[in-house]
Automatic annotation (TrEMBL):
The gene is truB. CDD domains: PseudoU_synth_EcTruB (cd02573). Residues 43-185 form the Pseudouridine synthase II N-terminal domain. It comes from the Bacteria. The keyword Isomerase applies. The active site is at 52 (nucleophile). GO terms for molecular function: tRNA pseudouridine(55) synthase activity. The lineage of its organism: Bacteria, Pseudomonadati, Bacteroidota, Flavobacteriia, Flavobacteriales. Belongs to the pseudouridine synthase TruB family. Type 1 subfamily. This is tRNA pseudouridine synthase B. Residues 186-225 form the tRNA pseudouridylate synthase B C-terminal domain. Its EC number is 5.4.99.25. Keywords: Isomerase, tRNA processing. InterPro entries: PsdUridine_synth_cat_dom_sf, PsdUridine_synth_N, tRNA_psdUridine_synth_TruB, TruB_C.
């Protein structure tokens, strides 16, 4: 990789670590690139699709002229490894907030769970979680929510293309989900719990695919302090 390569455009596949924001990951990568290569002060770099801090996995970063194709990549279908815990909820729909509303799940069967998952296939209505990066009158929803302000999220259409590789080890349910852009897996977890009548929240989320790009070709090494890029 050379200075010219980065300016002409490169696609770098990051495996985002847990508890990093997407912004932090891109900033760390940008710092490393600028420290190792002779790049202009206003070097263009950006990511194609935000991952929540509590999620890990594939984060696509584009540099130089390739930043123009970010919208195209964002429009591609996504795939996630998903783990939910049923019988309890959290305000954030994931592990950021403490558990609330404990429910008895002794009567919940595997057949019931699989039947419920099938109900979410195809186009569905989904309301994003209040702890999300969606802007409301210029403010991020999660900033408003964390400040204790009331946040009203609007319903939107999204598509669940498939749910496969289902593993049930109550209270945990694990599966792989393929979906359209704009899908909130946290909301999917919450809605599955509501359909079951016992609540649920997201305990583990890992993005494994965006369009033709896969996690197998991604690395978190780029974010390590001692990592050096091959400049050939």
């Amino acid at each position: 990789m050379t200075d010219e390569d980065l300016l002409s455009g490169q696609i770098i596949l990051l495996d985002k670590p847990l508890d990093w924001t997407s912004f932090q990951a891109v900033n760390k990568l940008k710092y490393k690139l600028k420290s190792e290569f002779n790049l202009p002060k206003k070097f263009k770099i950006g990511h194609a699709g935000t991952l929540d801090p509590r999620a890990t996995g594939l984060l696509i970063v584009c540099t130089g002229k390739f930043t123009k194709i970010i919208p195209e990549i964002q429009d591609a279908p996504k795939e996630y490894f998903t783990e939910i815990k049923i019988g309890v909820q959290t305000e954030s729909y994931d592990t950021e907030k403490p558990e609330i509303f404990q429910q008895d799940i002794s009567e919940i069967t595997e057949a019931q769970i699989k039947g419920t998952l099938e109900k979410f296939l195809g186009e569905i209505d989904q309301k994003p979680p209040i702890f999300s990066a969606i802007k409301i009158e210029g403010n991020r929803a999660y900033d408003l929510a964390r400040a204790g302000k009331e946040v009203e999220m609007k319903w939107r259409k999204t598509t669940i293309n498939y749910i496969k590789d289902i593993e049930i080890e109550l209270p945990f349910v694990r599966f792989t989900v393929g979906c359209s852009k704009g899908t909130y897996i946290r909301s999917l977890a919450h809605d599955i719990g509501q359909e079951l009548g016992v609540g649920a929240y997201l305990t583990n989320l890992r993005r494994t695919k965006i369009g033709g790009y896969t996690i197998e070709n991604a690395s978190s090494d780029y974010l390590q302090n001692d990592f050096k890029f091959n400049k050939e």
